[in-house]
Amino acid sequence: EKYVKNAYQWMVPFLHRCEIQTPGVANKLLKEYLVTLAKEDLNLPLKIIQHSKPDCQQKIIPDMDQLMVIALGCIYSCERDDQLSLCYDILECLPQRGYGCETDITNSLHDQVDQLEKILSVSELLEKHGLQKPISFVKETQSSPKEAHKLMVQLTRHTGRKHPPVSESHWKSLLEDLLDMQQNVYKCMDEDTCYEIFTESLLCSGRLENIHLAGQMMHCSSLPIDPQGNTASKSKTHYKISYEKSIQLVLSAGREYFNSSNNLTDPCMDIARSCLQLISDCPSAIQEELDLIRALDYLEEFGIKILPLQVRLCSDRLSLIKNCLAECPTNYKKSAKLLCLANLLRVAGDDQAERKGQVLILLAEQALHFQDYRSANIHCQELMATGYSQSWDVCSQLGQSESYQDLGTRQELMAFALTHCPPSAIQGLLAASSSLQTQILYQAVNYQILPSEREHVHVSESSGMISKEPQQAETKVSTSQSTDLLYRTTATTMKVLSNTTMTTKAVLHAVSDAQWWKKSLTYLRPLQGDGFGDALKSVSGGTAEIGKRGCHPFYESVIVNPFIAEAESIYTTYQHSPPESFAEVLLRTGKLAETKSEGENLFPATEVLLQLSNDALLKDLTLSLAYLLALPQAVDANKCFEKQSHLASSLQLAAYYYSLQIYICLAPCFKDKCHPLYRADIKELIKMITNYVSDYASANWPEEIVTLVEQLHYYNERLMDFTQAQILQDLGKGVDVPRFLADAQYKRETILGLAETLEERVYKISLSLAQRYNVPFWEVYMTHLEFLFTDSGLSTLEIEERAHNLNLFETLKMNSEAFYEHMAKYVYPSIEGRDHQRMLYYFTLLEDCGCSQYVKHAIKPETHIKLLKKFKAVASGLNYKNFADGNQNPLMALQPVLTSQNVLSISKLASKIPDKDGNMLSSSSIHAAWLQKLFWRGDSYLLKIKPQSVPEWLQAYDICGKYFDRLLPSDIVIFIDEITFSSKAINKLTVDARIEMTKKALSAVNQIIEKSKKKSTDDGGQITGKSTITYEGALNHLQQSLDHLETLCHSFIMYMKNTDQDCLQRYGYLYDLSRSEKKKISDLAVIICMDGQPLDMIQKLLEVAVGPLGISPKDVIYSTIQNIIASLSGNDTDFPLVKEPLKVLEDIVSAVHTSVEKGEKLVFADDLLEWLRPFCGNDSLPVKPRIDVLQILEQAFHLSDEDCKLLAFFRTQAVLKACWPEIKVEISDIENEEKRYHLFLELLKSSHTDVKFQHLVLLLQAWPPMKSTSLACTCDNPWVKLGTSMLCSCTHEEKENVGNEVLKICRSLYDTKHALSVKCIKELCLMLLNESLLLPSIKLLIESQDQELHALAIEQITAVSKISPVNCDSEVLSLLLDAKLVVKCVSTLFYPHLINHLLAKQEEGQWDAEEIAQQLHIAGFDIEAGSLMMSYRGTHPALRTFNTAFAAIKHWF
Fold it and tell me: What's phi and psi for 25, nearest 5 deg?
């Protein structure tokens, strides 16, 4: 106020005086004064302006225009940046537009004030964001785009550096402020620049959220921009920077972060990656930056420590790849990663081919440096595939590496190097390539000659010379023929070729480059296909068609009937060159070596020329012949001809070859021109030479020509053979012609096979062939005869007629023995037994050919003929083969065809018919067979209806009885037994009928006896023959039959036959069949005995049978026992056992025991022991069955001391054999208790496993209990010692299982003779307790039933402080309940578990809950008793209170 007062008092008058003195100076002075003051502080100028504003009565500056000028000057001159509020105060003092008179000056000043206002707003924004600037700064920079840009960048970067970071809304507010600044003041900048500055600052803020916000400000894809969206409102954040500018901003930010990073793990590197990834479609520039970041990862993986900025600034990025290779020797093996790194680093710019080539060269060089030829080859192959010319050097290095064995690949590498090398390097590379080709030839030859070197030779697939590995080449040479030939190379060849196996340098020394290439051009042709040997890969099925001539495709048009091999059929132009065979390579190599040695080492070309001829034969006949003509020795060609299939072409070639050689020897040809001989017709030449040598066969030829003539004749003969074989093939009989010519056995079989025909032409051909090839006519005739009988389909008369017409037998009878063998082996089995005509012809042939002496059968062919003639007339249905079979009864074959019409005729032949024993049949036996058939089946004349009922059977018997006078006594017996004691008789006839027929038979025999007494001689009707029994014997036999039949009505037999039990019915059936014969009755009794039937059944059977038989039950039992002993001993038995032998023995012993108890006195125990004791004492037999037998006897009878000792000894042996096989004992070692105890201690000492302990248990159980007074002490008891040893020898983890095993052992002794005493049980329990095995100890104590031990058990239970599975389980609870120890457990922790267990098992009814409650009540435990009863009766748990339980006990008890 004082300053204003002084201004009014002093300054204003002063200014008036100055104005008067000098007009206009007052305003100037005042302005200068105030502006000068304003530079330091605006407070005083503000005071002056405030007292000059339009509404003041007394103005210091009355002129408003002057006021505005001074105000503007003061504000703009102020150099402080904290005067913004004072500037606004000054602005408020200025007059509004329209105040006073308006002039141009006034309007201009008002415009300046408006501009000031905007400038102040900008300053306010700067101050708002913490970037204070003087007002003059804004005024001065408003027209400078550079300064404006700098200011905005400074503002946005300042905001980005704030801590804590500003929010997104703050950034958006800043963007709006920037736009306001641009619109109000900094119009020198465009709006887009503001957005770019803002976005760039976001990107460079170092925060991911700001980077994502920047992404929203940019077009991140090259997709078209929506024009409406772009023009919507540039003042809003929806505006997006153009795609191109966005890329620039992102790249700038990314590079800034990248360059500032220390390494790949620097946080700035992640931010750089995030910035770059904002551009979604990832253009090349962005991708290059991202790849650079990825490259850092690879560099770090390869161990390269380098700043990211150094990587960016590295001008030679390939040097980084070199550094990677240098860092680790094996890094070159990571070719994929190194190539990827080169791509990421943009080695060689954007030229990918150049980049890959440079890197692969480095990799190949590094691999070569470390002699990794495989890797080097892989890289070189890739370089060659891409055609990268700069790689010629590394390819040549690998190609010239002597240590690299793949010669073919080296050759390919050298070829590439020669193609792309500079002119100055051609000479050296040509020399190296030349030496390499020479080495390949040597290597290929040596591979075949020295198979041991195979593993060192590898020829690659891409080789231009030898285009497959030797193994493949080997397999492709005409199915190993070439290989076999080459392996038989002579020693000289091997010597020559081994001498030529030189190193590359030696080869180069021997052969100059010029000479080598001259020879190479002469011999080498570029190969196509799969390699040498392919030429023979497949020649149209292996052979050319017969009659066709193999030729080169070039000459196809001039050859008659040509044949082109499939491998040659691809020939279309002169450019084709077929692949070379190995033989060609070998020939070239050998000749090359011969040339290099200047003729000193001659190459033996015979084997190779033969191979070449062999290979070319089918493809080019002319070439093959040329190879053969080049042979040093003409006859060596045989080796080639013998290998060929015997076809017309090959045979004719051989004949032609030898014809040429003979001609050349007889008339040498000129060698300087083609002789007409070689143009002569092949067939004419062969014919001419053959005729010539035949005409002059007696001439004195030189030895060389003689050999050639022999070969010519040989192949002419073979050609004739082939011609005949071709005829065979034309027959269509499936003849393999080449095999026919080569295989003698096949030839013979084929000729004989052709004889098996009815075609006259084929039969004659077989005879012709047989004559030519020396196959005996006898074999042909015999084969034809066999065919006639077996497969011709002709009737017997037709066979006979054809054999007669062909006059076969004149030849066949020359070897009667062989004829008989063939007929018996091949013809006789094919004849059907009922074809009497064919059989008659068969035996007639044998007789006519004199085969009788070779027939081993009782019936000779002559007899067969007579029999067949008779049988053919009277018994056409007879199967004669069965009849004549010496192993069968002829009566069985005769019986079906015997009738009343033919029996007499056939019986007359009986003396000529042997039975299977060799004795001749009798007329009686034939009649007996016929009568059996008559009785059972009837007869078309005598008994037309087959009998079905008893009267009919009796009638049939009466008819048969009329012929008894024709039967011998033995045959009568056989007939009667058949109709009364056969299965058929038992099933069809009643016992009464059988008795009736037997009685009639007795009467008939008596009559026959009477008649025989009256006649001294036999009449015509009396049958003759030798009988095995007399009529008296027959009477006795029939009488016994009658007596036996009458026993069938006995009640015992009737019971067996009529019962429902199958076994008893079977006994009755067998008894019926037995006819009371001693053997059959004895066998039946043994069967009954083995079935375990009572002995009295056997006794009754023996009593019923017709006797006396002299058999007792004791005899039966003895026989059965011997049968069982035989079975147990492994011997054959008289009777098969349907059950196990020991089971049968048990049944017998049981039956004997029962019989003895009944007092039957049939068999005694001593009898069984006496019969079985030898078996049990036989040391040669197994122990186990002997033990089993004694145990069976022991269980049934009281054994003697000796038997007991024997049983104990056997058991001891069995146990020792199982676990202690090394210990041998005799019966004396265990004869008393002391010795047994000593043996036990010895075994116990050596026992440490469960298995041995278990066998000791078995041993103690097998012995009698040890009751000696010396063992009275419990500690010496064997069972106690066993338990102690088991517990002491086990580990801590096994204690529980061993304790349970001890418990099981003790339990197994309950109720046996080995039962332990109370003291022993207590000792074992204390021992278990000592081992902390409470549960098995308690169980053993409770189960002892001893009060003292029960008390000890309760004591142990009471001491339990916590129930667990170790001391309590359901079994011990059940034992406590069984022992009625619930009352004694009330005070223990076991009691609740006992009650729960009792209630849980109450449905099983094992324990009485009420009884236990009564015991509790009596013992004074009323509450427990009441609670138990309430739980037992199902009282609700809510009602089970103390009072309720107490009250309830009074109610129930």
Answer: -75, -25
